[in-house]
Amino acid sequence: MDPVTNPYAPGAGQRPPELAGRDEQLRAFDVVLERIARGRSERSIVLTGLRGVGKTVLLNALRSSAVRANWGTGKFEARPDQRLRRPLAAAAHQAVRELGHPRGEDVDQVLGIIKSFAMRDAPSGAKLRERWQPGIDVPAVSGRADSGDIEIDLVELFTDIGGLAADVGKGIAVFIDEMQDLDPDDVSALCAACHEISQSGLPVIVVGAGLPHLPAVLSASKSYSERLFRYQRIDRLPREAADRALVGPAAEEGCEFTSEALEAMYDVTAGYPYFIQAYGKVVWDVAPVSPVTAEDIRVAAPEAESELAVGFFGSRYERATPAEREYLRAMAEAALVNASQTGPEPGGDGEAEAGPAAYLNGHELSAVPTSAVADVLGRKPQSLSPARDALIKKGLIYSGERGQIAFTVPHFGRYLRSQS
């Protein structure tokens, strides 16, 4: 079929043509927006899930909903090597500009506070030329959100931007991607600020997205974070939604899938949104005519898997050092041993491989004990701590509970075993 009209869009954070299976989250967020606009109390939101399940796409969709509701919004991606002040100040700046507050002097006052908050990022004693200058064309306002204590300053910042939004009957929403990468002190400050704002009833919420261990990161920072946020786990799509993600875009281009082709697609993608788009794009280019058949899926599978092996799996594997790669391969082996002893769940990652798309079949890799990884390598667990900690910082694995680890990427274990 014509590759120019190919409707599928695999990409990091790129919205698919059909955002299937996320209607519940979108409807719930619309309710949150309306409740806060009416002065009702609501919790901030945290989306969690593996790589490739569409967290960033959903985060962007929620932001679009806030924009349509005339809220002020700002977004940034957390990074392990960056503290909170600069990116949050930029997000707050954008949110205030979107509000369209009619009183310019009030807006300038808050923008000056945002600028002061951002400039406090410089170390004490830094010269003026060494201080970061945010692109805010008003003088910095001293004495507010610039104490140097990030927790105090963030509470004051949220209070001021929330007050500005309340003046015009709107709200402020700050969207944070890769939230698990925030510095521990910044996580603590963010929780404290959300807690304070929820008690004061100001129309400010934080919507974060991150890996499955993000709730544990928040809980370790503030014990009340379990009640502070509304947690939503974003997972692979059920069969009906996965079919819709394929059929809807194809139908707009005059193409159909046979029922056998849809079943074959679900077998190889396991309902993971990124895999659906990746396979869909290759199948479209390979299939000669409509309707797409199960045979077309079989023919396209090797090429799709090859692209995933390079772009989705391989690019992450290349970020690891030799010692870290050894640890990753041992994790994959330990998972297979564990599955053979306990019996895999149907379609689970520990299930015996079969077929050309074997490492894509089934569910995500279950957590394995760190001691099992050490056993595979014939070493003491303590000696492997540096490699494990480095892989966690790189976002390749996560620890949901003490002594357990798992891959952040679906079916990474199958990929690693296929490379050995």
Class derived from helix and strand content:
alpha/beta
Identify the CATH class of the largest domain.
Alpha Beta
Question: How many DSSP E strands?
Answer: 8
Shape: globular
Largest sheet: 5 strands, parallel
Architecture (CATH level 2) name of the largest domain: 3-Layer(aba) Sandwich
- Helix amount, in percent? 40-55%
Average pLDDT figure: 88
Poorly predicted regions are 344-364
Strand line-up of the largest beta sheet: 2-3-4-1-5
CATH superfamily of the largest domain: P-loop containing nucleotide triphosphate hydrolases
Compute the separation of the termini in Å: 36 Å
> Number of helical segments?
16
Any idea of the CATH topology of the largest domain?
A: Rossmann fold
- The total domain count is 3
Portion of residues in beta strands equals: 5-15%
Using the CA coordinates, give the radius of gyration. Answer: 24 Å
Note the run of SSEs as H and E. Answer: HEHEHHHEHEHHEHHHHHEHHEEH
